Amino acid sequence: MELQMVKYEILARKLNYQFANPSLLTIACTHKSAGIKDNERLEFLGDAVLGCTISQMLFERYPDASEGDLSLMKSHLVSKKSLSIVAEQIQLEHHILFNRKKTQKSPAVIANSLEAVFGAIFIDSNMHQASQVILNLYQPLLENIAIGSLKNPKNELQEKLQKNRHELPTYEIKCLSGDEHNLHFVATCILKSHNLLTEGFGKSKKAAEEDAARKMINQLNEHTA
Question: Can you give the CATH number for the domain in which 65 is found?
Answer without folding.
Answer: 1.10.1520.10
